[in-house]
Each structure stands twice: as structure tokens, then as C-alpha cells.
Amino acid sequence: MIKIKNKTGVKFFAAAAPAVSALILFFLCAGAAHSMSVTMKDGAVYKARMAEGMENYLSVKKGATEEVISISEVKTIDFSDEAQKSPADAEIGTAAVEIPADIKSILEQVPDKGKFPNAGGYIIKDEEVYTLNADGTYKVRSHYIFKIFEDRAVDSNIILGYAFERESAKIIMGRTIQPDGKVSNLNPADIKEGDMFRGAQYYSNTHKILSATLPDVKKGSIIEYVIEMNIFKPIIEGYFCPAVYFAAGEPKRLCRVEIRAPKGKKLYWTAKNFDTIYDANFDILKAVKDPKITETDKETVYLFEVNDMPEFISEPYMPAYKDALPYIQFSSYENWDKIYEWFYRNFDKHVEEVSEDMKKKVEEITKDCKNTEEKIAAIYHYIQQQNRYISIKGDLVASLTGHGAKRTFDNKYGDCVDKAILMTAMLKIAGVESYPTLINAGGPQWAIEMPHLDLNHSISLVRYDSKEIFLDCTSQDSRFPFFRNDDHGRYNMVPQLKKLIKADMPLSVQKNFRRVVINKDGGISVTGKREFGGAFEHFIRMMNKSLKESEIKDRYKQRLNVTLPGVDLKKIEYTDLMDLSKQVVETVEYDAPDAVIVADDLILFAVPGYGFDFNEVSLKDRKYPIDYQYLTRTENTFEFKIPEGYMVKYTPKKFEVDNKYIKFSAAYETKDDGTIVFSDHFERRERVVDIKDYASYKSGLESIARYAGEKLVIEKIK
């Protein structure tokens, strides 16, 4: 860090040599030979001037001799000696120190905060330059300038992850600018490097983290940095697939992406989501659906540039960014062949690495199975529970293509790719066709029009008895044939079949039965059971399997107390949560005082604990579709035993909502013995609700919520 001070007392903290040297040069052009004093890092103070013809170097006077030193060796620079200059010279120097030209330019680009009341900050510049070399290597240089409006936007960290066997990373410069023009520069000595380590489940000895903390960052500051990634060994020969994103959570003054390729090198791209722009504020992006293409003697340049970009404001249950906002996906490949072939080679050899112990284990866990489906389930559940999820990777290839099946089996741990390979190998031993796949789980849909590796996960494709299903061994709580809901409806790359196959959308079903005895004093006694399937079963296992019985009971009671204060929970039990071969069933018994309204000869009550909280339609209007991620069906049956001497006076009428997205039906039936039976059925038919249908969809859900709150009335027989 270098501190610069002039006679006015204005200080600048600098380590960005070009800005500092330009400032010093200005003083020297206007002043005497040795018009500054420098304090070295060891505390020594010397007269100094700019070294002639050498940028970023000073000529320091030490006694009778002069020595040329780098600016980085200097702790502070003091221009107080300028007091001896003429008034005109001093005025020029002071003006320059107060706001250097580059700082002034940045400050002038900060808008009035009132123009962006929802913004935490303002992106002054967001620039990326991709440079593809003739040998297939490439680099990415990013320049980012951000004004901080609110405390929630304060972030002083710069973090870069890279695979050092294939990539290098640099933090070129970083600085913090205050509203008064004061600059605090990042000291290169404060840039740190460390191993990639994310908790107990991920470690890589070939991935590194480069990090730094910008100094003096606070509300009102402007941060600026330039970083560079150099990919000197692409993961697959010729792989170059940049994506161009425009919108962000904060408004932007300038968004600029430049892709430079050797002249004659053909690149391919697809423009996604430009035909349906949900937020009219982003109509300005239509102008960059296609790049501006220019050529030099050696390069073809693809340019995307947008000014005055509004901020992106998210909505509850909206789709992922890349499913909702325009972006561009580039690829150096015309088709998927090279990607298929690369994964095929690695997957194939890993699947073939089996052992006698593996064969014995497959025979052991499938010996009592009566059919192929039972064999698949037995192997699936074994890997889920007996092979822990831990990722230890020696290189980037292993991160994407995993290790041999034998190694994962012997170690009893592996990551998603390792477990998918092991699944395929063990199923193959059992005579079942299976393949490891690659998928972008929980995120946006893979833009399959352009060959590229937009993936974060690996699961398994299984074929048997004319069926084709997907299974995910990383989940310890999904009972066959269910697989993690964040895999549903997403494209899988199956390299060994040279195909992209979309996963299905299995239905998650929950069935609930309750018998409710209504007492004359206003209390109720409830007994019943609930059967879980799919995602419902997954969540129940995950939430409760590690809890003590007392903890399960306390949490269940807390939930009941929300609508039934003072509840006495007598029993809550689950079938064995660790046995994936059995469906989870809940058995419950409780009493609740004052659960109904007693008014003279009348008793009013609603279905206990029954209601809907549709947060997805809480907005009056939406700009983006609703994305539920997975499909569900719930069925409820409540039998009400009314007190002796009472008769049914009123029950709500049968109610239905039936459209392309949901089917809901509910009805009350009165039996001859006075028992009232309530039953409902609620099925979600589509994962995504189109925005054009939002008004009618919202109305339908709100009518369901109102219906669920309606009360029944019974009356004392006179």
C-alpha cells in the first residue's frame, strides 16, 4: 500500500502503479527536480523524483548519490515540498491530487440513488474479454466497477477458483474509491492462494483458490478490480464455450462482452429467451440478440454491448435465471461428437473396473429378489446407504468423469460421478442395462442447441422390461423408483448412447387419513395415519432420521400448536426411516382443547390443521412464470364423529378447480350414523405455470384457500 499526501492534507492510498505514476509525473512536470519526499517501508525518508523514461520507478536521493527504486518499495509519498512552488504551480498540483482524471471519470458515472430505490448498488462497468488462441488455449479478462448504495451490497472479497494443472488466475489490480476521491489500493502482498476445500465432503489437490480483500470497503464506496483467467490446457481438445449474460441483481451502466477468435475459426452460438422477454424493462436486450461482428487482420471479434441496464428483481417460485432471462451460449463445436467421445472413453473404462468382491456383493444383495425391478432397487438402496458422498479429486478429469467402480466400492465413498459409475457397474453385473449420465441438477434447463458442459451432477439411466428410468444414488432418502426432485424434467447427457434424454417428472403422492371425535366441551380427539411417497417421503426421512424420538415429538407438537393451541400429543411414530425398502408411514394421536366453537346449541368447526399457503400467488401481478420444480398429489380423508344428541346443520358444498395446471376436488358426505366424511384430492399437473395464465391461476388457488377455511355447523337436537 502506498500513501500519497500533498500540502492540502488530501491523502490517497495507492498500489496501482499506472495511476500513481501518472499523478507523480504531473507534479514533476510542474515542479522542481526533487519535489517529493518518500518514506520507505523500513521508515527511511528520502527526496525523490520520477526516474526518467521508466514508468513506475522513482529516482531517490540518498546523500550524494541517487538510486532508482520501484514504487512498490515505497510506503508513503509526500508532496508537501510543493509549498515552495509558485502559487500557479501549487494550484495545478493540488487540483490534480484532489481528483485524478480516471477517478473523476468513475465518480461522474455514479447516478442518483433515487433513480434505483430497490438497488443495493450500481454496476458502473461489467466487462469481459475472451481471447481464443489458434492453439485452442484462451484467456478471460474481467473488469468490474461497482458503487455500493446499501450495507447489504458491501462485499470486499475477490475470489477465483481454478485448476492449476490446466489454468492460471491473476488479480491484476483492485482498489476502493471513496466519494471524496480517496483511493485505497489492493496490496499485491495481500493476495492469497489456498487449496479448494468445501467442508467435509469436498477436497481437491489440483484446484486452488486465489483470494483478496479490498481495503476500506463500506457503504458509499466504489470497488474496482481486474482479474484474468488463462486456460492453457482445455479440458477437451478445442473446448471453448463462453456464455454471455446481461441482467444482474443490480442496475448496470455498461455491460460489455467481447469474444475474440482467430480469423477463420468458426464459432457457433444460440440466443436463448429473446423471443419471450417477460420483463419489458429488458426489451433493450433485443438489440444484442446477435453480436456485432468485425474483423482485423488476425481476428474475428464478436461484441455485445448494452448501456443503462435495469436491475433484475426476482419473484417467488420463478424459474432459474437462464430459463427466464435472455443470454447467449457460444460453442466451438458444431455438434456433440467430441464431448460424447471424451466422456465415453473415460466412463467406459471406469465401468469395466470391477472385482470379485463386487460380484459377490451383488449376488448377496439380490439373492432374494424375485424380478429385475427388485434387483435394481436392492442395488440402488445399497449404494445410497452404504457408499457415502465424499468428493476427493486429483484432477479436473476425475471431477467430471469419476474414478473406477472398484475404487469407489472399496473406499465406500465417492461423489456423484463415482456413485453413478458404481451403480452402472453393479447393475451390469446383475444383468441390467445402465449408463452414468451428466445433468444440471436444480438449475436451469441445459441449452442443448449448443454443445457445452453446463453441468453440475451425475445420475444413472436404467433400462429394463421396456422401461427407461433415472435414479440418483447421491440421495440417501429416496425409495426406489423415486429420484431427487431437482433432477426432474432436466436433460441428461448419456455419452455411451450419444444421446441427450430428458428425465421424466414422477408424481410425489401423500395420503392422509384422520378420525376426529368432537366433544361437547369443544375439544377434539384425533387419530390417524399418513403415507408418504416421492419427495414427501424423501423429506420426512431426511428431517427425522437423525432426531431422537423426543425431538420428533417436540417438533410435531410445535406444528400442531400453530392451529391447535394447547394440543396434547399422545403419539407420533414412523415406520423405520432407515429401511429404504419400506414406505414411510406416520401414525399420530392427539387431543386438542377448545378446537371447535360452541355457541349455545351450535358447534362450528373446520377440518383441523387443513389449509393452504400459496405464497407463489401472493403478488397481485407477476412478470415471470411459476416453476414448482416437481409434481405432487395429496389426498386427505377426515371422518368426524359428532357428539351424541347433535345433527348436521351445514356442510360446505362440493368444490372443484380443474384446469391445465391443477385438479382440485373436495366434498363433505354425511353418513346415516351422523358421521361426516371430508375428502379432497389436489394434483399438480404441470411444473411451470405460464405467465399469461397467472390471473386465472391465482384466482383458482385463492378460491381453494378460502374453501379450506370454511366451517361446518352441527346443532343440538331439540
Explain this structure.
The protein has 718 residues and is α+β, with helices and mostly antiparallel strands. The protein has 4 domains: 2-98, SH3 type barrels, CATH 2.30.30; 113-331, Immunoglobulin-like, CATH 2.60.40; 340-504, C8orf32 fold, CATH 3.10.620.30; 508-716, Jelly Rolls (Sandwich), CATH 2.60.120.1130. The protein is built from 13 helices and 43 strands. It has an 8-stranded mixed sheet with strand order 12-11-15-9-8-17-20-19, covered by helices on one side. Helix 7 runs antiparallel to helix 10 (416-429) and helix 9 crosses helix 10. The longest helix is centred in the middle third of the chain and has 15 residues, at 337-351. The radius of gyration is 33 Å and the shape is globular. It starts with a strand and ends with a strand. This is DUF3857 domain-containing protein. Residues 1-32 form the signal peptide. Pfam families: DUF3857, Transglut_core. Keywords: Signal. Residues 361-434 form the Transglutaminase-like domain.
